[in-house]
Amino acid sequence: MVSTIPRGVCTWEGRMNVIRKNAPRYRRARKKKKSRILDELSAIIHFNRKYLALLLRSAGRTVFTHYGTRVIADPGVSFASCRGRKKVYTTDLASRLQVIWEMAGCISSVHLFAFIRANHDIVFNHPDLKDLPRDVKRKLRRMSRATIDRLLRPIRDKMELQGRYQRNPHASWLKKTIPVQPHYEKPADAFGYLEIDLVHHCGENSRGQFAYTLTATEITTGWTELRTLPNKAHIWVEKALKDIIGSVPFRVTALHSDNGSEFINRYLAKFARDRGIPFTRSRAFHKNDAPYVESKNWTLVRTYIGYRRYDTERELVLLKRLDRLICLKHNLFIPTMKLVEKRREGGRVYKRYKTETPRNRLLASGRLTKTQKRRLTRLRKSTDYFKLTRRIDNLIRKLDQAYQSKYSARRTA
Fold it and tell me: Which of 29, 111, 155, 248 has the most Cβ atoms closer than 10 angstroms to its Cβ?
């Protein structure tokens, strides 16, 4: 062909008529003539040669099935299969199901499934449902939980039910006033920088009231203070922080916490603001933004106290005494490792650590007054390490007895 025919000129029906007209001639022709027919028709109706050859071979042919049925192939009929089970619960039931769902208070599909079966006499007396055909009522009664979910999903998404519960209106304002500080933005020489965190003593059940341990770690020296709280109300957190700031042998220059409600509240923000202490917080779901205090939660709390639930007055008293002695032992006598140098050579990373006690780091910092240094030295000399260790072991034994007696008393009762 010399001239060309653009796309869109022939309709689908017109193309099928061209194929029906040329199919007998194509099947009778030899190979060279078939090739020429395919060239011309592909230029006219813009079909792929393979697809065009399939249509020309099949159009108008008579085919007999295994059951003797005579079938004539028609290229105008779609080859798409219509096999498979037809849907019983179609989308036209969704509007009726929505009426029942709203009547039940927008409950879950599992509860709605039981609601329809338990209250079908009430459900179908609703003004919008009482005139329904019998087969529609039967479908609504027999509908499974998964089908209810499938039909209600577009309606739920449209209504955006997940946004109907209003959050604390002050939470976003509070978080905006307390800046985020990731671990890589911490100042290099941040003497007096305290990371704080709460350790739960709830055991396997977080319900009800139980004891907490507030951990506060100074990041340059590793000096750590522990305080036991009866619960995480802001009044106890504020009282414990006031005690820590007043008892540590240095001036606190910054506070850093996670995003827990025990720290992110207007009382603690005011507490830090009144004392001129910058208050920062970690990023959400980033524990490594407070790595120093997280490591002390294991070393100073979990290794001594464990993961049991402590919720009685006797246990609280023992924990308060134990926390003070653990702080004394680790701050004065137990050395900790601190990264001094980190360098990369090729594919390997080399790290150099310095091992020293928190007390010695404080004395070597050059930030303490002579009076503070004398107090630290006097405290170290007056503390008997062996007596201190025995007292800690004795308190741990008493705490274990208090825990065991609590549950044995319940069993005997």
Answer: 248
pLDDT tops 70 at residue 168: no
Identify which has the larger pLDDT, 321 or 160: 321
- Is the pLDDT reported for residue 398 higher than 60? yes
CA distance 348 to 350: 7
The whole-angstrom separation of Cα 400 and Cα 392 is: 12
CB 348 within 8 A of CB 365: no
Give yes or no for a contact between 217 and 194, defined as CB atoms under 8 angstroms apart.
Answer: yes
pLDDT tens per residue, range 296-309: 999 999 999 999 99
- C-beta of residue 195 within 8 angstroms of C-beta of residue 216: yes
Q: How confident is the model at residue 157 (pLDDT cuts 50, 70, 90)?
A: confident
Q: Which residues contact 206 (CB under 8 A, 6 or more apart)?
A: 200
Which residue reads 């910092």 in tokens? 365
Q: Is the pLDDT of residue 224 over 90?
A: yes
Kindly state the tokens that stand for 274: 């009144």
Angstrom distance (rounded) from CA 402 to CA 408: 10
Res 20: pLDDT: 85
